Amino acid sequence: MSTPLIEKIAYQGWPHCYRISNGEVELIVTGDIGPRIMRFGFIGGRNLFKEYEEQLGGMGEPDWKLRGGHRIWAAPEDAKRTYALDNSPAHIEITDGVLMATSDVEADSGLTKQLEVHLAAEGTGVTVIHRLKNTLPWPIELAPWALTMMTPGGMGITGHPPRATHQEVLQPTHPLVMWAFTDLSDPRWKFTSKYLLLKQDPDNKEPQKIGHFNPDTWGAYLLGSELFLKRYTADPGRTYSDFGCSFEVFSRNDILELETLGPLQKVDPGAAAVHVETWSLHRGVRIAEFTDTELDRALLPLLAL
Predict the structure, then answer these.
(1) Which residue range(s) make up the domain with 283?
(2) How many other CB atoms sit within 10 Å of the CB of residue 238?
(3) CATH at residue 151
(4) Using CA atoms, how far apart are residues 64 and 301, in angstroms rounded to an integer?
(5) How many CB atoms lie within 10 A of CB 57?
(6) How many domains does the chain have?
């Protein structure tokens, strides 16, 4: 079994990018800014990740840029630390088919950020290891926060922990967290017994967001008949930011964002917080209606892989 191919390419105006491919899917990681994964899709197919065309190819700007793609932040959200600039080059290391992209030390946070990308030799599976390293001389508290911006026009989906009857489980199972701008009457939301869905509507500029906790954290994005799935295992014995969220979904007219959060932790000088997601892409996923029965039929086989 061969290792994935990693080749240096120019992409969207950036001269130093890296394409990771295995004959079925490909990822593109920037070396000119970041670390960012800007593309994930089937070879010859569309990019499932959002790209802001007017920001592509830019670098060295004095203000933070959305740009698109997948990134790593530190939670809880903070106006200074969260929006530390990532407009400088990322350092790229390639070893045995694995790519690591690492930032310089951020002046506003004292952190270095790293994405380590493992693409399976066959199929569509990807493992992304996120690291937040503390370069300050004192400990800091944070939670790794992995954010994936999806291209417009699809449906974001996540699932709750296993459901049961009132007689079977008397205690609450998990939090459902709202923000000040969350509006549950917004027609983009869809709630079933087992699932929570948020439609990405290019005509609706109002932001919406909800978070929750699930030990088997996962979020999916259905665009036409293609499905992006990201997963990670959360620890119910630890403390999570944002009133206990391991997953959050955010949308407005330009994006839908699937976000996972690791536990809050004290990171000592020189140490790093580590957060691992697994990704996959799936074709031919057709969901006739967003009901528990239909969602179970389409998603449970994929979640069992």
Answers:
(1) 5-303
(2) 13
(3) 2.70.98.10
(4) 40
(5) 15
(6) 1
